[in-house]
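User: I'm preparing a small set of examples for a lab meeting where we compare how different chains pack in three dimensions. I only have the primary sequence for this one, and I'd like the structure in token form so I can line it up with the others. Please keep the answer compact; I'll paste it straight into my notes.
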Amino acid sequence: MRDWLEIQKRLLPELIELLKKRYTILHQIMLSESIGRRTLATSLQMTERVLRAETDLLKAQGLIETDSTGMRISEEGRQLVKQLEPFMGELLGMRQLEESIRQAFGLKQVIVVPGNSDVSPAVKQELGQAACKALNSAMGKEDVVAVTGGSTLAAMADQLTSSSPLKGIWFVPARGGLGESLEHQANTIASTMAKRLGAQYRLLHVPDLLSEEAYQSLKQEPNIQDILQVIRQARIVVHGIGDALVMAKRRSVDDATVQQLVEAGALAEAFGYYFDRDGRVVHTMLTLGLRLEDISRTEVVIAVAGGKSKGEAITAVLRSGHEDILVIDEAAAEEVVNQCGLDVPSGRLEL
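Assistant: Understood. Below is the structure token output for the 351-residue chain.
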């Protein structure tokens, strides 16, 4: 396929560019279910005039439908996108990015989806879909799955499906609840995932950030000890990756601690730990739940993150060496490649 793509690139570069553009438009409309032209133009960083010409053509071909609420992909358009996905992954260079990152960090699998979730909410939805596939492939019949919080994992939870109930699987939060919107908390995500799969769940009703006194007291509670034992038996961990200072702000960390994070060079946060550029832990939150030693023993660790802005943070966490599977978007993947100075195989086509 790559030889054929290279021939196309040399003889008909304008055709490949056009195919990429129209596939991207169809793909974004499919992810959004219904979207207005102005919103789509902003998401794709395209002028409304150019977008109007393309969507008029797609409508004439029966690939999209329009009404007063916006544009929707037709069933014929949906089938076309699905058929094109493997080809477009090669054409857009996703497979080459995946292999470069996989080899650099010794990962079992890397999944790269097109786009930049910093500027397109639809890309975050696709990250969630890709993470669902990775989790479904990894789960056995009687697994314990621990999940963290965040908007990306919330998007993932909303898209999990199963053809039959998975009653032998337990979902648990990796740690206590973050002081943010309820739908982004680990407890909510664990229960949502379980309900969508017909699985079971346990919750950890403690704050994410604890004082030393509260930590020591809660650690002695029999009910807390019971759920912690279940959490630490997790065979699979699914987690997001955050920018260190953004996460510190969300946790309302005091100014002195924020200054310590800055001085220590903290770039990333994952499962309550803060990592520097080299993947070293430079700060640990006092929290109940999974510890780093538990994660080191976990059989499958799946990281899900996206957006160009998270490139440094993702690289830092990858350098810690705990990940097995990475689900990432194109913009973040390119930043990881740049951060590490990786060579992308020549099959990646720059259009």
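A couple of notes for your slides: The longest strand covers residues 300-305. Confidence is low (pLDDT under 50) at residues 345-351.

User: Perfect, thanks.
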